[in-house]
Amino acid sequence: MFRPCIDLHEGKVKQIVGVTLTGDPQTLRTNFVSDRPAEWYAALYKRDGLQGGHVVMLGPGNEAQARAALAAYPGGLQIGGGINPENACAWLDAGASHVIITSWLFPGGRFDPERLQAMVDAVGAQRLVLDLSCRFKGRYYHVVAERFQRFTDLVLNRETLDRLADSCAEFLVHAVDAEGLVRGIDEQLVHFLAEASPIPVTYAGGARSLSDLEMVTRIGRGRVDLTIGSALDIFGGTGVRYADCVEFNRRLKTSSGGALQDR
Prior knowledge:
CATH architecture: Alpha-Beta Barrel
CATH superfamily: Aldolase class I
Low-confidence stretches: none
Mean pLDDT: 93
Distance between the termini: 9 Å
């Protein structure tokens, strides 16, 4: 299935090449800056019945736009970026269906299971999404944090997914080296997620055509959904029409007899 997104940077909806989020404006590569506010996109997704999309705050200055998006589509969007046990419940109260957690779990780049338990205690596993966005290094995918810049000590393998699955409702995995490049998905990573993850996964990174959505749906066998960003026409792209993604989901739900409605 197609999952929508709203990426916020400096208070605007943007599409950015993930690996360039270094904090240096000279190296930042931005594919698209919208003249529409976040709530416009949220209202669009609500109108078309798209659930489980993620709003990601890439750095400070995005809270007002994030809250406006959640208010426009209460219960329909997840929220990530700077989430911790102290503010998580407030974001749920603001309308988020789930909170997405990543960098807070990795102080100094090391996975901290006590911090994960604190998040579970704060919101419950069923309202928590773990962001396991990764980059390939050596022979393995490693989870990265701090706007994709810091390699952590957590290797993304079957053991990791099995160990973390009881602590959350879903995984969100950006293939960071493909993010924003519109050169195609990381098929190896999608295959791995489909085979290894015991819970639903949303994959993001590199999608450039409707055939990528068809491929992820086929490979994922109902386990893996796809987010499309820079290739999408509502984000200035030319590779994929948003209307086609909406229709794809409708056909998929019809063919499954509505079994995917709550995904």
